[in-house]
Write a structure and sequence with these properties.
Elements: H1 6-25, E1 41-45, E2 54-58, E3 61-65, H2 73-82, E4 87-88, E5 90-92, H3 98-101, H4 104-110, E6 112-113, E7 116-117, H5 126-137, E8 142-143, E9 150-153, E10 156-162, E11 176-181, E12 184-188, H6 194-203, E13 211-213, H7 225-231, E14 235-238, H8 251-259, E15 263-266, H9 267-270, E16 273-277, E17 283-287
Bound molecules: zinc ion.
Amino acid sequence: MKRVSAAAIAAFALLAALALFLYFYGGNPPSQSPPPGGGALEVVFIDVGQAESILLKHNGRYALIDAGESKTAKALTGFLKNEGVERLDFVIATHPHSDHIGGMEAVIRAFDIDVFIMPDIENDTKTFENMVDALLEKDVRVAIPVPGDVYTLGEAELTILFNQITPKSLNNCSVVSRLTFGALSVLFTGDMESEVEAALLLTGRPVRSDFLNVAHHGSSTSSTQEFLSAVAPGAAFISCGVSNSYNHPHVNTITKLTGMGAAIYRTDEDGTVRLILSPDGKYDVEVSGK
Ligand SMILES: [Zn+2]
């Protein structure tokens, strides 16, 4: 008769128990039940002129990426209140230029914010100082973005893809992030330029996305063909002002995107642009018009 040691029996029992545990729990925590109301996710490219501000909206939860210039701060907070915002699950200040953080002081004072994400770089401006003062006064939790960090908004997940500190170029300090919602994805780029695009591609992190928030208002210093080909967006969204002095978006950027077959939406022509993602993988775009 073959003898089976007690140790082997104990090991087998342990494996069986583990298999049973994994069968029931799948190695993941139990998933949340789906929220009520169908649960579309809206990505709203708000018309804030030659600047950028993007609202994420999902089942009564909200998040904001950038806040436009200070001159449109009042209009922005009014717009957000109209959308139903009282509290923001997270806010990202992609980089400390006035066309991205000008409205932040007003946003911080008007709404409760769970976590405020900003790169670890200062800008010697009154706008930056006002933003930091408001954060300190309201005791808002501030997080430095780290690639791989995930912020959730209901069923949607936003992953930090890249953030480097290059004091010579605040644009290249931009927080780059990717939102996933079911099978759909959106890439947010701030004002990153071609150097960051190349560095991000080298990391091998996933950039392919259904929708692209075109970097730096469509400037020619961003959106290399290599990067756009890696993202391969079906639709591209550009925040820029009517007849702006930078000539954003650059004709080359538009030509590249058109050549790839991407639909282009731009706030200078379309006004506020609302990208609506459905949990079933379908999407729709609504524009307010000018
Ligand atoms: Zn900008």
